[in-house]
Write a structure and sequence with these properties.
Strand order of the largest sheet: 3-2-1-4-5-6-7
Number of strands: 9
Shape: extended
Oligomer: single chain
Order of helices and strands: HHEHEEHEHEHEHEHEHE
CATH topology of the largest domain: Rossmann fold
Number of helices: 9
Low-confidence stretches: none
Number of domains: 3
CATH class of the largest domain: Alpha Beta
């Protein structure tokens, strides 16, 4: 509206000046009341345009823009069934943690529980993401409820998301923790949830300290860990790091599960035929995102010591430092 008023005011004022000059070239413009009416209309239009523009900027950056309340009714099939929420990446975000969460959610449902995923509306700011895209090009997983709720950099959103989860009162909340950058957001959300004095919070901790250290890592991890009731780790190193900060809370260590959601397994011979690889040659495979900390350069140097030097590195480069 403001933009339209502004344009119409300018057009009317220009038209007024042209007609006035044609009819009476000697007339003084500032001696006519219509001049001030047109000038006032231009000022008003400019103010409305500016207010509308600023309002749109504020609305686009609002933490509640993608926030909505979930009218979810838990439908438990048996007295032993649980209401479960998984907090962490889910579709349309890509990556191993998102895939893990999808499969975990599916398993809870198959066992008769109610389960959904609270994912991100904004996971990483573009400036902080080292890769080309955060989003998957695959079709969405079928039969899963995934809500894009969490803005990782906006404290008001953390408060609102925690309040919504507190209201939903799940029996179990499982939160994925892999990077201290997420500590402030997750720690604040979980503190809100704990106020319902019902939900038990279990963290699956992929990392306590990151592979690539940054200022604030220790403080952010401490803040997050204090909001949890129990932990699951998948390596000795992470368990040791966890116990250095949380020595007393319950924690179990287990192996990372094998994925069974990528199709039926095939034999080595069939796989080599499809990839056009020699059936007898020994091949060393480095698979996954190629990051500097993973030591691919060390592996390549070690290969020089081997007699047979057939190797494949399969995965995207996350930044130019890896090349």
């Amino acid at each position: 509206m403001g933009y339209s008023v502004f344009l119409y005011s300018v057009a009317a004022f220009i038209l007024y000046l042209v007609i006035l000059k044609i009819i009476n070239p000697a007339a003084g413009l500032t001696n006519r009341p219509t001049f001030y009416i047109s000038l006032a209309a231009m000022i008003l239009g400019t103010q409305l345009f500016t207010a509308g523009y600023l309002g749109e900027l504020i609305a686009r950056s609002s933490p509640t823009r993608n926030f909505y309340y979930i009218e979810k009714s838990w439908e438990l099939t048996s007295p032993s069934a649980q209401k479960v929420v998984i907090v962490g990446p889910g579709y349309p975000f890509r990556g191993g943690i998102a895939t893990f969460n999808h499969r975990l959610c599916q398993q809870f449902i198959e066992e008769g529980n109610e389960c959904c995923i609270f994912s991100f509306s904004l996971q990483y700011p573009s400036l902080l993401f080292p890769g080309k895209t955060q989003y998957s090009t695959d079709p969405p997983p079928q039969g899963l409820e995934i809500y894009s709720m969490i803005n990782s950099i906006h404290p008001l959103n953390w408060w609102q998301t925690g309040t919504e989860l507190k209201r939903m009162r799940p029996d179990i909340l499982i939160v994925r923790y892999w990077l201290p950058f997420m500590g402030p957001a997750f720690g604040t959300i979980l503190r809100r949830v704990r106020k319902n004095k019902h939900t038990r919070i279990i963290a699956i901790t992929d990392n306590i300290f990151p592979h690539e250290k940054r200022p604030g890592d220790l403080a952010f991890s401490r803040y997050f860990l204090k909001s949890c009731d129990a932990f699951v780790t998948m390596s000795d190193k992470v368990m040791k790091d966890l116990r250095s900060l949380e020595p007393n809370k319950p924690a179990v260590q287990t192996l990372h599960p094998l994925y069974d959601n990528f199709g039926e397994p095939v034999s080595k011979q069939e796989a080599r035929e499809k990839l056009r690889l020699d059936k007898d040659t020994k091949i060393l495979l480095f698979f996954g995102f190629i990051r500097k900390y993973k030591g691919l350069d060390i592996l390549l140097n070690a290969i020089r010591l081997l007699k047979e030097k057939n190797y494949t590195a399969a995965g995207p480069f996350e930044n130019h430092d890896c090349r």
